[in-house]
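Continuing the series of single-chain predictions for the mutant panel. This is the parent chain; the variants come on the following pages.
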Amino acid sequence: MALRRALSGADATWIVVGSMVGAGIFIFPGIVAGQLPGPGWVLAAWAAGGLLALAGAAVYAELGARFPEAGGDYRFLHASLGPLPAFLTGWAAFLLTFSAAAAAMAIAVVDHAREALLGPGGSGGEGGLASRLAGVAVILILTAANAAGSRLAGRTTMLLTALPLAGLAALFAWGLASGHEGVSWPSAAAGGASRPGGLAAGLMALGAALVPVFFTYSGWSAAAYVAGEVRDAPRVLPWALLAGTGLVTLLYLAVNGVLLASLPPAELAGSTTAVGDAARRLLGPAAGRPMAGVIALAVLGSANVTLMAGARIYFAMAGDGLAPRALGRVSPAGVPATALWLSAVWSALLAASGSIQRLASWVTLAMLLLSSLTVAGLFVLRRRDAPGSSPPFRCPGYPVTPLLYLAASLWVAAGSILHDPWGGLSGLALVAAGVPVYLVAARGGRSGPAPTGRTSRPPGRW
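Parent structure:
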């Protein structure tokens, strides 16, 4: 039974937006501002991050048009570089990346929802046992909605994304129009007047600031994972990836513009609560609780997409004989329900364990390198194309666009390993541990691309 193509282009666009707009934009703007010598540099950093995300989306737009099936990175790597790197990206996704991200976001949803309902210092304690157990419940509820069908999951994502964006816009618009404090564009450096100036110093600071910016923009590839459920995917998917990424870029620039205009540089620099601080400054202390509600909804939408996308990776792996064949089953609702629930159980265990942050940080470097391999695979596919052939969508600006993305990704990867070398090496070791698992999975049968919705080979070791 095939996956049901129930998602429209609008649904796919909302999936991209919902995946991108998570906790990052509420945490990192102050940290980025604290690393840069002035407001112009701050906006330049967020604009550069958006351009790099658009470059990645342009590459994935061509890849998704070429392979409009479930799996995203896994499917693209399998087609370009072979089953081993594809398996390793799926192994890392299940072991930590997608699963730990969903678990961490579920706990964040609970903590912010508690603050919205009870105010700061509400009972339970951030990250405590009650929060972790409630996070497990959030994961299971979202998975049940996903298992009911991709159409419902897409509509849930749209609702959970549109509501917080409308709330954020309303809060800031009201505050700017009638706030407690005046707003003005800062003339001093966001990081403080003592920060050294000059173009060279600014460029060095920009490189460091792009690390959190890069991660805040992550999620632009989300629609590629559910391509097997998008109607007319070769035509629709590329524009969903580009439109969703472009809209979020404009949103992030607008949010940072409001922060720069409403918070003093010294207050903004280094803050992890800058968005909430700006809301309280513009609207008074009572704004903290509605802002916490906005954050909870935004993170909930991102968690929903993370669970949705991860299951499609494991479904695709099962279709190629690289995961237990049960994960390749399609429910009567037209979704990979078994993969969804297995992913939910593992994410729930991670949420209950409370050891998510360290585990997730370990795999950052490895996933950056694996995603870079995915982008590099486009060059391989282009070389294999028959003379005169053309994919349904061609990456704009090729080969400059993928080369730009690769250079930026490797730059961020270098910054990541310099910041936490042991964590980076630990992540690479965890991913490398998937090699013997791959050898077991691949033994006893072939591993090739599978048609949507069914396995392509005998079960073998699985």
